[in-house]
């Protein structure tokens, strides 16, 4: 474990403690801009990068694993929750207004780092010239373990609400519906990677397909920005799952079904959960939970439209590589049209500047051909 650092001056007080045996925990930060702050629409990339940089400064080995590890990511971060509005080509955060930001840990190693980090939190979250003061930090999801989730009490149904747009990958495309197999496959992947109690995936998902019912749902879909590349169509809202009478014939799967539902607030649902998508809570809501600023929706729609154009032009080559290039071209060109510099785009995408510059030229040329 990395050496504990001394508390820095002018950092927010923190008396958060939890058992060293903890495997799952969620923290909520209250962030306040001292003056009006203007962020680029894909600001969650900055939150993601800032968090990993915090890890890197204290534990480079853990940071490398979180960034490059081939397993499921053992953490999530949310977007900012609060009064966010469009301002031209940017999103605006209002001075002296509180914004909530959540970080969760899905493994003992990550929670150990969080326990050390909260003892000496920095004074601000710095999002590219938009410092957000950390006013407070508190526990949002109680410290627990996978075994405790498995053995906890439960009701007859399982109800989940999706606070931020949620989507899955299916046959190379985004799939914005909470079909039970997709939902529980999402949770099972994290469970099998981090719980130390792996379950046969095919057998469990066959049981889900046969025994899990949707008893009610209320959903809204929207186009949103998704991490470093492209845009997705995601859903928000709520869903209630129930079980058939035959479900009890495999009681171990029935027990896991409820445990995975309680895992959802920690691990999120679907993909891009380390960039703010798929934030999930237990319970029901009849309201649209998160408003997406117009500028974000506009950019997401532009990226999606450009991606389809570039995919159509490259259909002869086909394959995942062609689709990936089309998505990168679309993202780079759309963000450049929004006034962002290619240097900033290159930094966000983790690509060499010259490559991004070349892709921008090729995308503009391809767009002229299409017209």
UniProtKB/TrEMBL annotation:
<keyword id="KW-0540">Nuclease</keyword>
<dbReference type="InterPro" id="IPR045648">
    <property type="entry name" value="CRISPR-assoc_Cas6-like_N"/>
</dbReference>
<dbReference type="Pfam" id="PF10040">
    <property type="entry name" value="CRISPR_Cas6"/>
</dbReference>
<protein>
    <submittedName>
        <fullName>Uncharacterized protein</fullName>
    </submittedName>
</protein>
<feature type="domain" description="CRISPR-associated protein Cas6-like N-terminal">
    <location>
        <begin position="30"/>
        <end position="86"/>
    </location>
</feature>
<dbReference type="GO" id="GO:0051607">
    <property type="term" value="P:defense response to virus"/>
</dbReference>
<feature type="domain" description="CRISPR-associated protein Cas6 C-terminal">
    <location>
        <begin position="160"/>
        <end position="280"/>
    </location>
</feature>
<dbReference type="GO" id="GO:0004519">
    <property type="term" value="F:endonuclease activity"/>
</dbReference>
<dbReference type="InterPro" id="IPR010156">
    <property type="entry name" value="CRISPR-assoc_prot_Cas6"/>
</dbReference>
<keyword id="KW-0051">Antiviral defense</keyword>
<dbReference type="InterPro" id="IPR019267">
    <property type="entry name" value="CRISPR-assoc_Cas6_C"/>
</dbReference>
<dbReference type="GO" id="GO:0016788">
    <property type="term" value="F:hydrolase activity, acting on ester bonds"/>
</dbReference>
<dbReference type="Pfam" id="PF19308">
    <property type="entry name" value="CRISPR_Cas6_N"/>
</dbReference>
<keyword id="KW-0255">Endonuclease</keyword>
<dbReference type="InterPro" id="IPR045747">
    <property type="entry name" value="CRISPR-assoc_prot_Cas6_N_sf"/>
</dbReference>
<keyword id="KW-0378">Hydrolase</keyword>
């Amino acid at each position: 474990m990395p050496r504990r650092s001394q508390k820095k001056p002018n950092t927010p007080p923190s008396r958060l403690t939890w058992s060293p045996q903890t495997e799952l925990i969620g923290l909520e930060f209250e962030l306040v801009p001292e003056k009006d702050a203007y962020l680029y629409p894909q600001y969650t990339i900055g939150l993601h990068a800032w968090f990993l940089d915090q890890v890197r400064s204290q534990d480079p080995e853990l940071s490398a694993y979180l960034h490059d590890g081939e397993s499921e990511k053992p953490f999530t971060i949310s977007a900012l929750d609060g009064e966010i509005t469009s301002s031209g080509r940017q999103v605006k955060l209002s001075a002296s207004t509180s914004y909530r930001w959540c970080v969760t840990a899905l493994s003992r190693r990550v929670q150990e780092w969080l326990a050390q980090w909260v003892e000496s939190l920095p004074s601000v979250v710095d999002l590219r010239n938009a410092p957000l003061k950390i006013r407070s930090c508190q526990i949002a999801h109680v410290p627990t373990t996978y075994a405790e989730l498995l053995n906890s009490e439960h009701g007859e149904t399982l109800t989940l609400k999706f606070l931020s747009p949620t989507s899955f990958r299916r046959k190379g495309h985004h799939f914005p519906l909470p079909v039970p197999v997709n939902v529980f496959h999402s949770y099972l992947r994290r469970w099998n990677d981090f719980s130390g109690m792996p379950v046969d995936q095919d057998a469990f998902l066959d049981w889900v397909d046969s025994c899990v019912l949707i008893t009610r749902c209320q959903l809204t879909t929207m186009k949103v920005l998704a991490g470093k590349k492209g845009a997705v169509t995601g859903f928000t809202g709520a869903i209630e799952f129930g079980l058939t009478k035959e479900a009890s014939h495999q009681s171990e799967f029935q027990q896991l079904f409820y445990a995975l539902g309680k895992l959802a607030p920690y691990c999120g649902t679907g993909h891009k959960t380390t960039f703010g998508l798929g934030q999930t809570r237990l319970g029901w809501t009849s309201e649209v939970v998160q408003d997406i600023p117009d500028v974000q929706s506009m950019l997401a729609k532009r990226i999606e439209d450009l991606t389809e154009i570039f995919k159509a032009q490259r259909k002869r080559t086909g394959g995942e590589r062609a689709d990936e290039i089309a998505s990168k071209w679309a993202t780079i060109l759309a963000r450049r049209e929004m006034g962002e510099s290619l240097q900033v785009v290159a930094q966000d995408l983790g690509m060499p500047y010259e490559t991004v510059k070349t892709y921008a030229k090729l995308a503009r040329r391809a767009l002229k051909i299409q017209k």
